[in-house]
Amino acid sequence: MRTLPGWWLLCALLSGPAAAAPPAIPGAGSVAPEVQLCLQHLKPGERDRAARALGPLESVPRYRVQLEVEPKERRVWGKVQVELVAKGPRPLTELYLRLTPNTRSRQVTLSGAKLNGKAVALELGPEPTLQRIAVEPPVAPGGTVSLEVAVKGTVPRAAPGAESLLGAGGLLGGGGKAGADDHGAFSATADVVSLVGVVPQVPPVDDQGQPWAGPQGMGDLALYEPAHVLATLTVPSGWAAHATGTPLGEVPERDGRVRYSFAAAAVRDFPVLVTRGYQSATATVNGVTVESHFAAQDAATGKRVLKYASQALTEFEKRLGPLPYTHFRVVQAPLSGGAGGMEFPGLVTVGTSLYRAKQDPLKMLAGMPGMEAFEELLDAQGAGLLAQVGAQVGESLERTLEFTVAHEVAHQYFAGLVGSDPIHDPVVDESLAQYAALLYMEWAHGPEAAESLRNEALVMPYQFFRLSGGNDGRADRPTGDFDGGELEYGALVYGKAPLLHHASRKLVGDTAFFKALRAYVDTYRFKWACKACFTQELAKASPANAKALTQLRTRWWEEAHGDEDLGAADLQRLMEAMGGNMGMGGVKLDAQTQELLEQLLPQLMGQ
After folding, report:
1. Dist CA 200 CA 110 (whole Å)
2. Contact predicate 42/57, CB 8 Å
3. What percent of the chain has pLDDT over 90?
4. What is the DSSP letter of 202?
5. Sorting pLDDT into bands at 50, 70 and 90, what band is 358?
């Protein structure tokens, strides 16, 4: 394996607290210094487990990232080098790099490509996010490849209203695919530059050597093979850089800018965000430093987010096993498209709308189609009712905030640790993350709270979708096959599909269910899991129910029994349930009000 260029190692080492060699990693032997830097990101007890899953940690793909950011001009540029070992039965004849910001338009460009030190051409791949590089001569299995490219990008301004619950879409994400895009993952506001996807990465390939499908305009963006990353991120004074990994320090440059450095090990993605005016709070959970980064005006919420993240991680480590990394970050970001959060290994973002929703929830809904008429409807029944509804909605949104944080923490296991294809098989990781968040609510707040959240966060979105005119259907399909847009995707993948796990748990009992869940994480740690893999672990834990478990997966994921399993949508019953959740004892609708709400509902849901 070639060592990285001298300029890079010098930058990485000088960016630390002291210009010294990285600390020795026990058992690392002759591991290269840059790999030792990366391995600081793994808990000592997790390095052997990672090696058993991935092979020698020296042979894991290695990225070296050097980026500079100018937030005022919304520009980013730099260099990226990737070194990898050719795997598979055939010689390596081509490489692909994925840039998820280019899903809709070419916002990031690559140039100056060098393969093993020789200039090579970059070709457009079979889809907009891909660039292809021919490997000549082919590299035999076990051989090494080094590819270096220059990166340059212009970051688009965030969509208007990105900091409201409207999220530049409907309440639950809006209608069509075109409005969803990347939920603001690659966008800029006055104080936040989100650079998710700016680092070009090698996508996984199928048995024929073809790259997995890229982002489809909704759902997640991409996931990659576990890799090591060393990164330096240079930003203007007054700005801070956030990324996955162990921080190696920050060093002032002569021109007044500041260079941040990070080292990450065995991670499936490398998100980068740059913020101004943020504060932070930290906690420690079983050797993991948990960080919460938030706008100064949202400090109180940011500290609650830290508490929720720490509590969720504590519960998950007890039941799912240890998180392998030493650092985990939650960063407030102005997400759009109705997204509450976005997950990446070692770092997640939570939408600004959720940080501010409890303060004035009705204000955060301002501008949503139909909202003005809805407020008039409430006000007509009494001015006090409007205030009461606002306060109770605020409490409900606080539960949503905690549930969202737990969901994103659960993604550290599904699919951050246990990999699955988020584009072709989104139902795998999303259903487990959603159900794990529900389990967290049960463990932290009791069965009644979990049951309330089950109805509020899973059942009711499905029923609202049906009331707005949507059709039940197969949940297990690629993200691009949800023609009904984000609302359909949310109802089926986040609402109906996770309840397969609830049904499976009731069938096999808690002892077998949690034994299988832990076995699933242990078996596929750092690997790729299949759609049926969790069902297979459940069958091992409860052999007598093997056939019934497969039938349940077919029913909940492949067929359309939502109305039968979750209850047919009924506006009056939903309003009563909502009123009960808000402590109002149910809302009884007269015929005229019910007719008005039925007319408004499609607009309220972004249709």
Report:
1. 9
2. no
3. 72
4. P
5. confident
